[in-house]
Amino acid sequence: MEGKAKAWLNRKPLRLGEYMATDLTALPVHALSAGLAAGQFSPVDLVDACLARMAALEPKLHAFVHVHESEARQAAEAADKALRAGQAKGPLHGIPIAVKDLVEVQGHATAAGCAVWRDRVSAYNATLVEKLLAAGMIVLGKTHTVEFAYGAWGTNQHMGTPWNPWDMEVHRTPGGSSSGSAVAVAARMAPCAIGTDTGGSVRIPAAWCGITGLKTTIGRISTHGVIPLGPTLDTPGPLTRSVEDCAILLMLLQGNDPADPLTAHLPPSAPMADLKLGVKDLRLARLPDSERAEFDAEILAAYDRSLKELAAMGAHIVDLPQGGKTLRESGDLVGRIISAECYPRLAELVDNDALPLDEAVRVRVRAGASISPSEYAEVLAERERGKREFAARIEGIDAVLTPSAMTPPIPVAEVDQRNTPALSTRWVNFLDLCALSLPNGMTSHALPSSLQIVCRGGAEAMALRIGWALEKTTEWQKMAPLV
């Protein structure tokens, strides 16, 4: 099997639409789907290629907690037979995917990044995993996360910190908490992955690993079977190498789930219908000048270039009306919500100093002990007021554009765990919005930068439409780390 995968490197380039590659792992999901449908390769070829890259890169990159090799191979064989018999379950049948170690996969360990829970075996599948399997997707394995998903640097003291593949000499932050999922996609060990986002945990890893990530609206994708961090804010979402792939996975994963009542409140999103309509005459608000000091100069340069590119396509770049909380104020309130909600569930663990917990995460969770019920209720009331005020501020505006991260990925050795890199993202969770992060440039040190496209709650289709237009003009998503 492995010999088959290696043989792809010696083939003539395979053309699938706008993509040409000799290695299957270089192709995005929508191109892989087209190739499988045309019989240009099989699910077995594809899984073999992914597993071969894992074998070569995992010792260094440490993206996966567990690789489900035998199950993935069996699923690939079954998918191959089904496709050859004309029994495809849909466009994603035979496509591999990686799943964050926060999501229940029946019969496999789900530790939520906690060494104490290494042997915690899932008794059932999360709703989103059921949807993946029903579509014929192949779960390659479980990916690393920050402990309990509480942290945006991507570090994990006891389970290990994945290595950002954009710098193979210096161990840089992969972004968190969906660190392993982002590294797996960026390093082409998996064409797509599942992450979760409570304060930026899809978007920060996407930004720092040079890929695309979608923070969905609360209720868009069921959280049943996803170990909670802050249920008020938790949202699952896809990590991919193209905007179109995010749209495809959104359509699969969304929908009403009786096990998650919040999913009953949103009408279905149809992102593919408007994906290629462009940005002409859309009104896109820029980052307020008062917030620019929070961001690195090269990140701002890439951001300003993106604004010019969108304006050249016919978008109107406008000022965001003044008012509301600063990024830092919103970020602090998100931290209080998360700590208040996760401490009661995790107190028995974090208050036992004998247990091997990540000390930085222990401090964050313990902060919830000092938040009284009345203080927690007031923060939630403040959030509701903020949502109403922001809705009024963006009347007539289609999206708000900011950088996804304040800096490029930094050396892990320089991380200050007392601070968070998620100030550019947390405000989106605070106001119950949706957002897309996608590559928009490279720094002078060949590290990726990223644009965040923020839209109203439920308007994922608009964020994807804007992202697709920019992606097709710049093609930064085709850049990949040299691993």
Descriptive notes:
With 483 residues, the protein is an alpha/beta fold. It has 15 helices and 13 strands. It has helices spanning 2-7, 29-37, 43-61, 69-84, 127-134, 179-186, 203-209, 243-253, 271-274, 297-312, 327-350, 359-366, 373-393, 423-430, 460-474; strands at residues 14-16, 19-21, 64-67, 96-100, 138-143, 193-197, 212-215, 235-240, 283-286, 316-319, 399-403, 434-442, 448-455. The strands form two sheets. Strands 3-5-4-6-8-7-12-13-11-9-10 form an eleven-stranded mixed β-sheet, with helices on both faces. A hairpin with a 5-residue loop joins strand 12 and strand 13 (448-455). Helix 8 (243-253) packs antiparallel against helix 15 (460-474). The two termini are 22 Å apart.
Helix content: 25-40%
- Based on Cα principal axes, name the global outline: globular
Task: Quote the average pLDDT.
Answer: 95
Low-confidence runs: 1-11
Q: Biggest sheet: strands, sense, closure?
A: 11 strands, mixed
Write the layout of secondary structure elements.
Blueprint: H1 2-7, E1 14-16, E2 19-21, H2 29-37, H3 43-61, E3 64-67, H4 69-84, E4 96-100, H5 127-134, E5 138-143, H6 179-186, E6 193-197, H7 203-209, E7 212-215, E8 235-240, H8 243-253, H9 271-274, E9 283-286, H10 297-312, E10 316-319, H11 327-350, H12 359-366, H13 373-393, E11 399-403, H14 423-430, E12 434-442, E13 448-455, H15 460-474
Parallel strand pairs: 4-5, 4-6, 9-10, 9-11
Antiparallel strand pairs: 1-2, 3-5, 6-8, 7-8, 7-12, 11-13, 12-13
Helix pairs in contact: 3-4, 8-15, 11-12, 11-13, 11-14
